[in-house]
Amino acid sequence: MLIKNKDKFLLGSLLMIGFLGVLILMFLPLYGPNKENFLSYSDNIFNRLAKGSAYFIPKLQRDVQKYLGITFNLEINPRRPEDTPADTQRRIHFIKLLYEKQGASVEINEHTVKISGDLGQVLISALEDADNMYWNKGEFIRNKYEVQDEKRLFRQWHFTLGQLQKDYILKKKTVEAKIINSVLTKAIEPAYNFYKIEPQKLSEQAWLVLGMLLFYVVYTMWFGYSILLLFEGFGLSTKKAKIKKEV
Fold this sequence. Notes:
Elements: H1 6-26, H2 38-52, H3 57-63, E1 71-76, H4 85-101, E2 105-108, E3 113-118, H5 119-134, H6 138-145, H7 150-170, H8 174-193, H9 206-233
Antiparallel strand pairs: 1-3, 2-3
Helix pairs in contact: 1-9, 4-7, 5-8, 7-8
């Protein structure tokens, strides 16, 4: 008979049945006000908390003031390999809207876009847009630039500032490159990635998060012990076999 230890096999089977039962419940739309499954519910909670801990825009708005009056000239190729001609034209149009809105000069050639402007003013404008996107105020962007797709337009801040950062790095202007990197990583990226997610502070959900982390640990151990007991029920063990001494 395959089963060597019926008690451990029975206990392992019960644990595994319970584990699978909880797993089924996790996939049912039972959680939160929107009746999501547990994975979506927990993912949304941690996204809200992550966004709540990623708000650095007010400090950046103060930091970029000292870059007012520093001019730049940038030439970029806005076309990407996967673009259709319409995609490229749309990107050029959005870049033109972004930079002309805050006083920069934009010159469109056959394959390139040349931008000349004030670094501080550009960063102030980018942070203003990022702040509104962070707080899910897409209508501000739509009204400011008279567009329908605020996310696609806002994404051009990441593209163009990324190109400007590379240009400063090549010119060994590390101070300017560093502030642009801060704006990108601490303002543009969180605002874009967490758009339409409501931010929450960890202190507001501390007990819920603690409970979810504790559940994760217990649930993981639950599965591990059920497998261990089932194996031991079949007579398989991780313990060393006793060495028989010759008489």
